[in-house]
Write a structure and sequence with these properties.
Helices cover 27% and strands 26% of the residues. By secondary structure, it is α+β, with helices and mostly antiparallel strands. It has 2 domains: 10-150, Nucleoside Triphosphate Pyrophosphohydrolase (Alpha-Beta Complex); 153-225, Orthogonal Bundle (Arc Repressor Mutant, subunit A).
């Protein structure tokens, strides 16, 4: 047992890692950057960096995401802390992970600062990432699936107008299973899905009707009728 001095408790650094999920072409994707600096030069990674000494964590998350990917005004939520003593080769770095769900088409990503590239990658095609980022991404994805089962957060990733088939495909991808169409439609029937006057365009099959999700009606139903989302 080695002797601990009070100064030993003030030698750790803190970082923030931003796990950003989106959905397109039938796949849930994560936003990754390619590192242009040591350690792990040229490795793909979750957008993240060190927190300034006088910086609050939510501010750091917004700054870092913007500096590395160009994204801004993204609502992020704190998820988990990762603090293995050896997770960073240059010293003790405790990281706080944040996550967000966005519509990919609403944002333009652009790698900047020390990020060489920024790219959306299907969760089925994630490579070996820098540091412990595979663990961070996997852990955050499990949290996402828990929330998808109990909260209508899928509509933060779907286009504003979507087909019921696209809605179902998102859940099939998330939980890696084929869902019965009739049973799925029965489960989502209580949701305030508003049919539009529009249908799909430029498709080879019969165009499907487009729907939108009424957030106000859902909030009112939860408040007044104790409605619970469950899929």
């Amino acid at each position: 047992m080695y002797k601990i001095e009070i100064n030993d408790f003030f030698t750790s650094a803190f970082s923030v890692d931003c796990v950003i999920f989106g959905y397109s072409d039938g796949e849930i994707k994560a936003l990754l950057i390619q590192r242009g600096m040591e350690p792990y030069t040229h490795f793909w990674a979750i957008p993240g960096d060190l927190v300034y000494p006088s910086e609050d964590l939510p501010d750091a998350a917004q700054r870092i995401l913007h500096e590395l990917t160009g994204l801004e005004n993204v609502e992020m939520h704190q998820s988990r802390t990762f603090g293995s003593p050896n997770r960073h080769p240059q010293g003790r770095v405790i990281t706080i992970s944040y996550f967000a769900l966005i519509r990919i088409s609403d944002f333009e990503i652009k790698a900047s600062s020390w990020a060489e590239k920024a790219m959306w990658v299907s969760l089925n095609d994630i490579p070996e990432l820098a540091f412990d980022h595979n663990q961070i991404l996997s852990s955050t994805y499990e949290l996402l699936k828990q929330k998808l089962s109990n909260e209508p957060i899928c509509f933060e990733m779907l286009e504003q107008r979507f087909t019921l088939n696209e809605f179902q495909q998102l859940y099939e991808y998330a939980f890696d299973q084929t869902l019965d169409k009739a049973n799925f439609r029965k489960k989502i029937k209580p949701l305030p899905l508003v049919p539009s006057n529009e249908s799909q365009k430029n498709v080879r099959h019969r165009p499907a009707k487009l729907f939108s999700f009424d957030y106000e009606k859902y909030s009112s139903a939860v408040k007044d009728d104790n409605f619970q989302f469950k899929l």
